Amino acid sequence: VVVLSDQEIAQRKETVDPIDTAAFTVAERRLPTEQELASYARFRLTDSGVSPLSHPGMPGGAYLAAGIEHNEKGAPTASGEVHARMNEKRIRKLAPLTRRRDLFETIGPARAPIGLVAWGSVAGAAREALALATRDGLEVKLLVPRLLYPVAEEIYGEFFASVERGLVVEQSHQGQLYRVLHMFVEVPKGVEALARSGANPITPADVLRRLHELALGLQQRRAGEREATLD
Amino acid sequence: MTTAGVLEPKTFRSELKPIWCPGCGDFGVLQAVYRALAAVGRPPHEIAFVSGIGCSSRIPGYTTAYGFNTVHGRALPIAQGIKIARPDLLVLVAGGDGDGFSIGGGHVAHAIRRNLDLTYIVMDNQIYGLTKGQLSPTSPRGVKTASSNFGSLEAPVNPLLYVLAYGAPYVAQGTPADMAGLAAVIEEGIRYPGFAFINVQSPCVTFGRPEAQLRMHKEHMKGLAGLGHDPADRIAALTLAQSYGHELHTGVFYRAPEPAPSYEQLVRERQETLAPGALPPGRILELFSPGKRGIH
């Protein structure tokens, strides 16, 4: 797991309620059974992609951990077939994450034609912009992912189903999430990147201005379509 | 910790067959490690064997133990983490001269001054063999390699002087040309209660210099015990270490007669001292509450 953090959040001070660390759930790795230790394979191919992990001190559990490709027992290998099986296993292990709806927050009307996607601290600016835009009478919704990768194709697909115009808002020079989404998801053509390098944070006003531009464009397009139908 | 009774060197031979070049000095180091581990008698599952990257860093894969073939130059930091978390384990660290004294050079000094109970074996072949023969930090000045057609312009690092200067409490050197002697210094290093450094002159048969091969070692090596060297004399060890690159001294250069407490011992003592007043994990945030404890 790679946790991405914002410098903006990391360097600020905030008064928060005490965190009850006693309520945390510690997720233990799956340990091998005695039967599994009898012919232990640290990287055994499994349906879930998860293999039991031995700890030093467990008789029969010794294995080699290495960065290079390896077989089920941990021995380095140059076999293309093993490499493919191991990669399939790694991807299989990540798959359940893409069904974790609790890692995604959706705000606003489900059938809104304008959609925002924003993550990290920028999601705060997007939330405020959404509230202001709703006050101004725009139909907008927001998706805040806490999971960036693997890309939850189904969840994005459902979100974008009603979207004609939109923004992927992110504090990133190249708009990395916007680009990654295009690799996996049918992003509607009217969805653009609102991306900027750090140091000058994206503000609610920045997002709101773009939302009004999108709404205006959408309104003009619909008017054009109506005229074309009447002709 | 369990005592496994009498173990055979073959107990530590893994299912993997080494892919080193025929005649590589590392085969001898591997056999010496097997012998030393068998003599020490800890079972394979109580041993962590950590290495970096390079030909020699393949050694944990050829040893039955919990092996970790880590990243280049970072074997020592990872081994230190393992030893602090699990002081009950026997932790061996191995790598080449490039791994230890070039990319990982900065870690050696700090591992020594912390004095964890680790045994660090450097297979010093004065070349980067895995990448086809470039200059390494211990390559002699003037040597011609794939990356120095006109000869190296740099003075080599002296690993023995380096670790002695930083205060390593156990420093030895060996060669596979003297298997019994090499196994003995490795065994003694494992048994020594603190940071043990063993420099092994382990020839590269493919890219190494002709004068650095095992045949030459057999002809020219000089046992320190035979020279009457007192391993408790650090100044004498420093003097002898200056001959690195010119003479091949084998045996124990230095063994601190009064071992200092290891880092993991000190950590445990501090934990025990602080434990009576320690807050349970669920109340740890109280440490940061003004007027209670910690911050005022």
Keywords:
heterodimer, A: 231 residues, alpha/beta, 7 helices, elongated, B: 296 residues, 8 strands, 14% strand
Structure write-up:
The complex is a heterodimer of chains A (231) and B (296). Chain A has 231 residues and is an alpha/beta fold. Chain A is 35% helix and 13% strand. Chain A has helices spanning 7-10, 34-38, 80-94, 122-135, 153-160, 176-184, 204-230; strands at 64-66, 104-107, 114-118, 140-145, 165-170, 191-195. Chain A has a 5-stranded mixed sheet, with helices on both faces. In chain A, helix 6 (176-184) links the parallel strand 5 (165-170) and strand 6. In chain A, helix 4 crosses helix 7 (204-230). The longest helix of chain A has 27 residues, at 204-230. The mean pLDDT of chain A is 94. Chain B is α/β, with parallel strands linked by helices and 296 residues long. Chain B is 31% helix and 14% strand. Chain B is built from 9 helices and 8 strands. Chain B has helices at 25-40, 75-85, 97-103, 105-114, 159-165, 179-191, 214-220, 234-241, 263-274, and strands spanning 47-51, 66-69, 90-96, 119-124, 170-174, 196-201, 222-223, 249-255. An 8-stranded mixed sheet of chain B has the order 2-1-3-4-6-5-8-7, with helices on both faces. The longest helix of chain B is centred in the first third of the chain and has 16 residues, at 25-40. Chain B is globular and about 70 Å long. Chains A and B meet through strand 1 of A and strand 2 of B.
